[in-house]
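Note to self: keep these together.
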Amino acid sequence: MNKALRNPWTYAAFILPTLALYVLFFIYPVIVSLYYGFFQWDGITDKVFIGFDNFTRLLKDEVFIKSFWNNMYFLVFSLVVNIPLVLLISILISKVRRMRDFYKSAVFVPVVISTATVAILFGVLYNYESGLINQVLRAIGPESWAQEWLSNPKLAMLSILIANAWQNIGFFIVLCLAAILNIPREIVEAANIDGATSWRETRLITLPLIRPILFVMLLLSVSGTMKVLDIVQIMTNGGPFQSTEVMSTYMLKVGFRSMELGYGSAIGVAMFIIILVMTGVLQLISRRREEVQY
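Structure:
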């Protein structure tokens, strides 16, 4: 056994299949998308080389710029609402002694539900005539309180953000809760003996010690919100009036509905670069942070 482990081919036998899949399903599509981005092509006729025209067109495309800012709404909502809510719920569950496993399972249930199901479920809840939300609003107030949640350009994005948060927040709660419960009990007990309040315990002990997990949550939020697609596609298809259009839905429409595969590929490359730059900046920031030692 030891002789086999000292053989480099043993490690290669385990690494190469995974590496091959990574190249096939990640590296190759990126290279092909970059290649097609330099062409005007409808997927049927011959490709026409146009250089950087597709990429310069992005900078002038008002719909793409609007879709980029809509993605940023997802990111800001995640940072301002989702992550603080995750921290609050995780800390509350960590304080519970009885039925903790039940609460962890309960918050994780939406994660295992398919996005299509979540989108349809919230579409029913947001329905103007029969939706539960409007029914409750009509019961406690005048008819004017009922809203066209997915047809109103001012409310559609917020409605999708809430649905998306409901589905994904459970994963971050479980991740954050695991980090909190992994904090050595001796540190918490010493703080309690010194008379630390719950707020001081959270601010001076819990948050610094789970900082690595917070950065992981931040990275996942950036990558997830920049490539969000299915929930928007099903709930509003980018409408009304492109108020919920995101880069992924716009790329889909351009590439496969308008049959501009070259321009659609350029949008995909732009998304890749945006995500790469944002996650790279976060990685640099995290490396400069002093590691917390127990």
